[in-house]
Each structure stands twice: as structure tokens, then as C-alpha cells.
Write a structure and sequence with these properties.
By secondary structure, the protein is of the alpha/beta class. 35% of the residues lie in helices and 21% in strands. It has ten helices and ten strands. The protein has helices spanning 27-30, 35-38, 44-48, 50-62, 87-94, 147-153, 166-179, 198-209, 215-223, 229-235; strands at residues 2-4, 11-13, 18-23, 66-72, 100-102, 108-110, 132-136, 158-164, 183-192, 211-213. The strands form three sheets. It has a six-stranded parallel sheet, with helices on both faces. A two-stranded antiparallel sheet has the order 1-2. Strands 5-6 form a two-stranded antiparallel ribbon. Helix 4 (50-62) runs parallel beside helix 9 (215-223) and helix 7 (166-179) packs parallel to helix 8. The longest helix is centred in the last third of the chain and has 14 residues, at 166-179. The chain is globular. 43% of the residues are buried.
């Protein structure tokens, strides 16, 4: 068991029943040439969350914590984007979802479409062998995805949450996780958004849906656990 300093109270979690979620840290939201950048949205605050998230990933993997990536992406025919009069289609059509573009690496790509440069995780946080990657087509990572089944199969209870954007996909996933009785803790400096609601969203999560901590507190908490789960496994 690990005790992590957090608000509104210390968060105690079982490493063996914990998953680290990385939500939507993909090129369309965090990279130059991605969807947000093409829309003129400042992605610097999302890029600032990459380094602390990388440190969290390293610490989590050292302790044997499973990493699950969520990626926002639609099928090439947009059949999962919603009906023309749906809120989801209205928002994403205005963002030019599906439009053919040339990625910064010179490859042909499409905005927010699965298995293209646009929906790849940013290179600094790239998934490693053994990580789980789950596509989603709505803000919540639980809506019509395999996430819940994946977590239940591993008897997961605790979710360490990182990613973007704080008040949309992160908060939506945390709310749905709380409704399913997962204990969710958001690492505030590993989340970001360009909409101006970052702090208020964290305050709401802290009050009603989970806990809030930081990357340094997480790394420090895991650093106090010796020997690591990974070392024990290797020795066995």
C-alpha cells in the first residue's frame, strides 16, 4: 500500500490494483500541426504537462503499475462520430474532423482519425510494450469502450489520471470512473487545457469525484516503496 499526499485527504492505494491513465496526450491536441494548433488554439500548456507526465510514467513502470492510454479518434468513415444533429458531431465538424492533412513528418494524415499521425501519442510519452491502448469516440474513456472490462479483468480499484483536456475528457472520464466506484486521483500538473477551466475543474474533482495531487508527490510516494514491485517480480 502506498500513501500519496493529496487533497482533500491522503490517498492510499494498492499498487497491484492501480492503473495509470494517460488521456488524449496525442498529436491532435498537444503537437504543432495537430488539430488544436491548426485551429489557432495555444497548446503550450498541454506541452508543459508532457515532462511531468513522463516522470510519472517512469516511476509507475518501475513499480509495475499498469499503464493505459486513451486516444480520441474516429473511424475513417466517421460512423462513430454521431448523427449530423448530435452535439458530438456539431463540435467536431467545426474542428474539421476527418479532413485530409499533411503531417509535420510529411505523411498523409487526417484530423482525429484512428491510426494516423494525428491520433498518435506524442513521441515523449509513446506507449511501451505491455501498455494498453484504448480508442474512444466520446469525451469519456468509459463510453462504448473496452476500458471498464480491461480494468475489471485486472481487479483494478485505483486510477491515477493524467492527460488533456482537464475539464473535458479528463473530467468526463473521472466522473464516469467515480460512478463505477473507481477511486480516481488526478495529478494536476500532468493535466492541462486551453479553455481556462483547469483550476475550477480540479477543484470540482477534489470536492465531488476524487482526489487531486501532483507529479512530484506521486513520484515521492512511489520512491518511498522499496524494493520495487518490478524488482521483486524479477527476483522471483
Amino acid at each position: 500500500m502506498v500513501t500519496l499526499e493529496a487533497e482533500p485527504s491522503p490517498f492510499v492505494f494498492d499498487v497491484g490494483r492501480t492503473v495509470l491513465l494517460v488521456i488524449d496526450m496525442q498529436n491532435d491536441f498537444a503537437a504543432k500541426g495537430g488539430m488544436f494548433d491548426r485551429l489557432g488554439i495555444d497548446v503550450s500548456m498541454i506541452q508543459a504537462a508532457i515532462a511531468p507526465t513522463a516522470r510519472v510514467l517512469e516511476s509507475a513502470r518501475e513499480q509495475g503499475i499498469k499503464v493505459v492510454y486513451l486516444k480520441m479518434g474516429f473511424r475513417p468513415d466517421l460512423s462513430d462520430a454521431g448523427l449530423p444533429d448530435s452535439p458530438n458531431w456539431r463540435v467536431h465538424s467545426h474542428a474539421n474532423v476527418g479532413e485530409a492533412v499533411r503531417a509535420p513528418d510529411g505523411t498523409e494524415s487526417r484530423i482525429l482519425i484512428r491510426d494516423t499521425w494525428n491520433t498518435e501519442i506524442v513521441s515523449e510519452l509513446r506507449p511501451q510494450p505491455g501498455d494498453v491502448v484504448v480508442y474512444k469516440h466520446r469525451y469519456s474513456g468509459f463510453y462504448q469502450t473496452s476500458l471498464d472490462d480491461t480494468l475489471k479483468a485486472r481487479r483494478i480499484k485505483h486510477l491515477i489520471v493524467t492527460g488533456c483536456t482537464t475539464s473535458v475528457c479528463v473530467e468526463s472520464t473521472v466522473r464516469d470512473g467515480a460512478f463505477r466506484d473507481y477511486s480516481c486521483i488526478v495529478l494536476g500538473d500532468c493535466t492541462a487545457e486551453p479553455l481556462g477551466h483547469h483550476d475550477s475543474s480540479l477543484a470540482l474533482i477534489e470536492k465531488l469525484f476524487g482526489w487531486v495531487s501532483s507529479s512530484q508527490q506521486f513520484v515521492d510516494a512511489l520512491g518511498a516503496v522499496r524494493p520495487s514491485f518490478a524488482t521483486l517480480t524479477a527476483d522471483a
